[in-house]
Amino acid sequence: MDYVSTRGSAPVLDFASVTLAGLASDGGLYVPRDWPVLSRDEIADLAGLDYVETAVRVCAPFVGDVLGEAELRSLLGRAYASFSHAATVPLVQLDGQHWLLELFHGPTLAFKDVAMQALGQLFERFLSGSGRHLTVIGATSGDTGSAAINALAGVEGVEVFMLHPKGRVSDVQRRQMTTVLTPNVHNIAIEGSFDDAQALVKAMFNDASFARRFPLSAVNSINWARLMLQIVYYFYAAVRLGAPERAVAFSVPTGNFGDVFAGYVASRMGLPIERLVVATNENDILHRALSAGDYSVGQVAPTSSPSMDIQVSSNFERLLFDLHGRDGAALAATMQGFEATRAMAVPDAMRGEASALFASARVDVDSMAQTLRWAQDKCGQIIDPHTAIGLAAAKRHVGAAPMVTLATAHPAKFRDAVERACGIRPALPARVAGLFDREERYAVLPAELGAVQAFIAERARPADAVAA
Ligand SMILES: Cc1ncc(COP(=O)(O)O)c(C=O)c1O
Ligand SMILES: N[C@@H](CCOP(=O)(O)O)C(=O)O
After folding, report:
1. Burial of residue 340, with CB atoms counted within 10 A of its CB: 0-12 exposed, 13-18 middle, 19 or more buried
2. Where is the Tryptophan synthase beta chain-like PALP domain (predicted)?
3. pLDDT tens per residue across span 191-249
4. Is the beta carbon of 308 within 6 A of some atom in ligand 1?
């Protein structure tokens, strides 16, 4: 499988190179040259397969001949051995219409582990014996950072620099990052928002001399491999609810548009998805874009679902690429206009095309809290605020198809917000016991490119350094 940039002018790469590259050199995002399609029979054959086997079948067309099937299977087997639930991502029925897909049984208690545990394995595999090393730079509103640090701490040849917005992640999220004192992990609290942190990461990739000096790689969903690994659970859930005979709908708490874009890819691959609901909190740029064509950036508002406090949703560019008929030059011009003005009007024709699959909803804090209490009172489930936003949106858009809300984080990660909403303070699971007894280490830096680059340059290994 070949990968092309959404902006049309970066080199075409294979799966191994695209995994190690992160952002494309023309500022775009890599996508497969074509969407592979699974036949109805191939989808039907997924019924009854465990998670690892489902992942092998779904990922194989994207991996191509870069890894053999047996090697892919053993790599994914190692990745998902760290999950605490036998089903890896169990489906829980709430009532006659609604299900939760619990994606938080990995080591850091959020859906990011599903992709990140495997991405760590892929990095190790592609670096092993190559003499290469990587400087991984990432931006996090809390969950990507903890998952990446768990997956990459101590990995030979990898140095991790993780930027989080100071004071805008939960205490559990922060400690899951800052108490990892392994020498290859560097946490940076940025005086700004997640968007500032994400812009700094992109600026470092786009700074040709910095990118030549340090072999940069990404763990955010700008990295294609992250998204590929998230497509799997749409298939896994849908076949359990009757696909391909029966269509299924999904509601996805959304920030960077990565998770819901993975659902879009599943649909392009032939999975019968009746509807994909894009659920936002008060940071509603995606809801405005899909419902009114208004993709204009406002101030990031801090909310009780902090992992979704995002305005510039990186992966929206991947959808726009398809909506522009995969014309990279046209999209590059659109994105340049957006980057200059911080606003874009999504034309009605494109919005119409998107609305064949996507619906959207903006869920405010009261509606989030009400839904969280509904799940507790009526269904006996304590859910986290991000999942509650997904579920509230699901209730607005439920139709004939079973509606699956992605449960993206364990409630204990956001125990203050859960307690405020329903009066119950969820206990921390045993696997994160001792989190509050450990020493923390992180640097605080202004949201300035020079300051962050200087910090990284002092600690990262330059491209021409010989591997140890
Ligand atoms: C708990 C949680 N829910 C939802 C999201 C939104 O996912 P995405 O950014 O892929 O849209 C995030 C962060 O990305 C998250 O950490
Ligand atoms: N919510 C995320 C933000 C980054 O998203 P990503 O999927 O692009 O890595 C987080 O928790 O860090």
Report:
1. exposed
2. 98-347
3. 999 999 999 999 999 999 999 999 999 999 999 999 999 999 999 999 999 999 999 99
4. yes
Q: Is 57 inside a domain boundary?
A: no
The torsion of the CA quartet 90, 95, 97, 103, rounded to 10 degrees, works out to -20
Q: Is residue 116 part of a domain?
A: no
| Paired tokens of 269 | 């691959």
Q: Would you state the structure tokens that stand for residue 319, as one six-digit string? A: 């959808």
- Please report whether residue 357 resides in a domain: yes
Beta bridge partner(s), residue 277: 251, 359
Which ligand has the minimum distance to the alpha carbon of residue 261?
1
Query: Which CATH number covers residue 327?
Result: 3.40.50.1100
| pLDDT classification of 466: cutoffs 50, 70, 90 | low
> Would you tell me the crossing angle of helices 51-63 and 224-240 to the nearest 10 degrees?
130
How many distinct structural domains can be found in the chain?
1
Cβ-based neighbour number of residue 159 at 10 Å: 22
Give, in order, the Cα–Cα distances in Å from 148 to each of 101, 129, 189, 327.
22, 22, 16, 33
Write the DSSP symbol of residue 411: G
Here the ipTM equals 0.99
Would you state the structure tokens that stand for residue 376, as one six-digit string? 């507790």
Structural domain containing residue 269: 91-110+226-422
Q: How many residues does the chain have?
A: 468
Assigned domain for 138 exists:
no
Round to whole Å and give the CA distance between 255 and 286. Answer: 8
Cα of 444 from ligand 1 centre, angstroms: 24
What are the tens digits of pLDDT across the range 318-331? 999 999 999 999 99
pTM for the predicted model, two decimal places: 0.97
Active site residue 112: yes
Task: Tell me how far the alpha carbon of residue 174 is from its chain's centroid.
Answer: 18
